[in-house]
Specification:
The chain has 330 residues and is of the alpha+beta class. The chain contains 6 helices and 17 strands. The longest helix is centred in the middle third of the chain and has 37 residues. The two termini are 13 Å apart.
Length: 330
């Protein structure tokens, strides 16, 4: 009997670096007890999510994650990049990657390459590089059709130090702090927005050329209504020819969920304040309210039992993000 329900999920693992590897700094690593706790937590949660396709962020040890996923029936596993080792201490890793695991056969996959013409248009053709290379892959789902998935992890809100520009080595310098809060924050927003622009452009172009449904899943490191990202779900003006644009576009899947609440659950807490940083954007094919819907029902699921709003510091044995998923019924 053909399966009628499918789940798609995203989960930021928080520094998934198997011993003896460290993340970012030599002392930032798991001891055996911490790693056992971390592995059991992720195994249990991924099993509980029971996704057909799940994307991961902050992966420093892809082969370890692949083995974990295969044991849970997610036999198809892909990455398109590798973490970078420190030149002096090779067990210290930088630039974690995104990964995708699936129970469904993957039709094709590739690292997303930005369109050179788009970069030229944005006057950024020489400098651009994704902070984490996105995965673009496709599936052919029975009774649903072609699906293009993007696994993403946008630029964080962390500001790169400008101390070298002032020839200032003290991070406590008042001018440096002011610059970080203004120019540094803006640079971070621009970088995140540029990454989102490239994903958005490719998704809409692929929708038109392939007539494929679309999912963009991952850690956006910002709220969707922020100036840096709000264009991704921009409604086209009514003055435009509706027949031309009805086949393309992205929407927050939460808007289509029959179980959506008035307030969307936070997927991350910082100093007690909750924010939604993780998203699953979808194309019109996931809207159960269309005249001739492909999907009869869509549910939005948040797996956040491990999050404690009162905690002021992250616990590396778990994750500082909720996992989120959508379940569709065909």
């Amino acid at each position: 009997m053909t399966k009628k329900r499918y789940r798609f999920a995203t989960f930021n693992l928080l520094n998934f670096a198997a011993p003896p590897y460290s993340f970012y700094q030599l002392h930032e690593r798991y001891d055996d007890t911490q790693w056992q706790t971390k592995s059991q937590f992720i195994t249990g949660l991924v099993q509980h999510i029971d996704a057909d396709v799940i994307v991961f962020q902050e992966v420093f040890s892809p082969s370890t994650l692949q083995s974990l996923c295969e044991d849970l029936g997610l036999e198809h596993f892909i990455t398109v990049d590798i973490p970078s080792p420190d030149v002096v201490y090779p067990t210290v890793l930088f630039r974690p990657v995104v990964a995708l695991a699936s129970k469904l056969p993957i039709k094709s996959f590739t690292p997303l390459e930005p369109c050179s013409e788009l970069l030229e248009y944005l006057n950024n053709q020489h400098q651009f590089k994704f902070n984490r290379t996105p995965i673009k892959c496709s599936f052919d789902i029975p009774q649903f059709g072609l699906l293009t998935c993007y696994a993403v992890h946008f630029k964080s809100q962390r500001v790169h130090s400008m101390a070298h520009m002032l020839d200032e080595h003290s991070q406590d310098d008042p001018l440096l702090e002011l610059l970080h809060e203004t120019v540094g924050t803006l640079q971070s927003q621009i970088s995140r927005s540029l990454e989102a622009s490239i994903i958005y452009y490719d998704a809409l172009k692929t929708q038109r050329e392939k007539q494929a449904a679309t999912l963009v899943m991952g850690d956006f490191n910002d709220q969707l209504d922020s100036p840096a990202l709000s264009f991704m779900t921009q409604t086209f003006p009514l003055t435009l020819n509706a027949s031309v644009f009805e086949s393309v576009g992205l929407f927050d899947s939460y808007e289509f969920a029959n179980n959506a609440q008035l307030v969307k659950p936070a997927s991350h807490y910082y100093q007690g304040e909750g924010n939604v940083l993780d998203y699953i954007l979808c194309s019109k094919e996931f809207n159960p309210n269309r005249a001739k819907p492909c999907v009869k029902e869509l549910k939005y699921l948040s797996f956040d039992a491990h999050l404690d709003p009162k905690k002021q510091r992250e616990d590396i044995c778990y994750s500082d993000h909720a996992a989120i998923a959508i379940e569709i019924t065909l």
